[in-house]
Fold this sequence. Notes:
- By secondary structure, the chain is of the alpha/beta class.
- It has eleven helices and 17 strands.
- The chain has helices spanning 19-35, 55-71, 85-88, 92-95, 132-139, 146-162, 275-280, 305-312, 330-338, 343-354, 362-386, and strands at 2-4, 12-13, 16-17, 41-44, 75-78, 100-103, 113-117, 120-127, 169-175, 208-212, 218-221, 224-226, 243-249, 255-261, 268-273, 291-296, 316-321.
- A hairpin with a 2-residue loop joins strand 2 and strand 3 (16-17).
- Helix 10 (343-354) crosses helix 11 (362-386).
- The radius of gyration is 23 Å and the shape is globular.
- Heterodimer of SbcC and SbcD.
- It holds the Pfam family SbcD_C.
- GO terms for molecular function: 3'-5' exonuclease activity; endonuclease activity.
Amino acid sequence: MLHTSDWHLGRSFHRVGLLAAQRAFIDHLVETVREQRVDAVLVAGDVYDRAVPPLTAVELFDEALHRLADLGVPTVMISGNHDSPRRLGVGAGLIERAGIHLRTAPAACGTPVLLADAHGDVAFYGLPYLEPALVREELGARRGSHAAVLEAAMDRVRADLATRPAGTRSVVLAHAFVAGGAESDSERDITVGGVAAVPAAVFDGVDYTALGHLHGAQTITDRVRYSGSPLAYSFSETDHRKTMWLIDLDAEGAVTAERLDCPVPRPLARIRGRLDDLLDDPRLERHEQAWVEATLTDAHRPQEPMARLARRFPHVVSLAFEPDRAPEDPLASYAQRLRGRTDRQITEDFVAHVRGGRGADEAEAAVLTTALDAVRLAGTETVREETR
């Protein structure tokens, strides 16, 4: 199986179009399927970058499906939190005849795609991104949390698997934030009630879980893995090695995994310092053809910094200012307090600030959390309305 996810077709990188790089990835994907004699392709969500993707992204997706179908290799694909399930799932029944299995409906998570090899059947269960407030009742979850709705979905998976012949192997595709995974700046927040992560134990009972959502390839357990995104979508991914997982499932369901590198359109570099130093430092020569994020530490903002940087680093795409300040400088301490903090932490800090140090009590913290969840959910419901 070739496990991939988070294509984010239609996304740009700091206003630089990535369509050519995404097309090169699709070329690489198809060639890998052919060379490695892959039996099934798994795409664990976020096929598109937004619910209503640009036409060029839809055309590339259509091209990818045709090329995979021409190879005669089954593809199992779920929707992620960036996708519109209704749009992505249009024509799923018809497309399935060509071996492309789109799983976008939460209610169908217990209905597998059955594929076979020399050792027997493998049941593939697709768990699309499950927004707790929208699917809790449909799945009969006990609580409105990510863990609860995923557990309810997995209960359906395990119940169906129990009806299958002995020796049937199983694979789950899911789009979620699993505890132990490392985040980056380019993933959309899916926190509910102040909690985003779910335990890996939710997926107990299946041979392999192909995860999507986090953009770094990583191993949660030997049987639970993120493929990560095939391209970098933020400078927080500068140190990522972009890969796909080639997964071998033997006759007993044991997993062997190999990382296969994806093509890199252009390396990323983060540079920091005074403008004159960045322009003169010979050690930065290796970054001159990279996409560059420059953070200037000059005490005063230099004249025309972007234009001057671009003369040495023609692909500089991001510029930030963080002047070196004394530790007692209030602006420095404020920036430090905000760095790396969640929306919930920032709002609670604000309450404490305006009340002279008295923070939110348990009831007030719950109100803040509910308000933040409502704002995030409002965006999700707007997307759903647009896609009806």
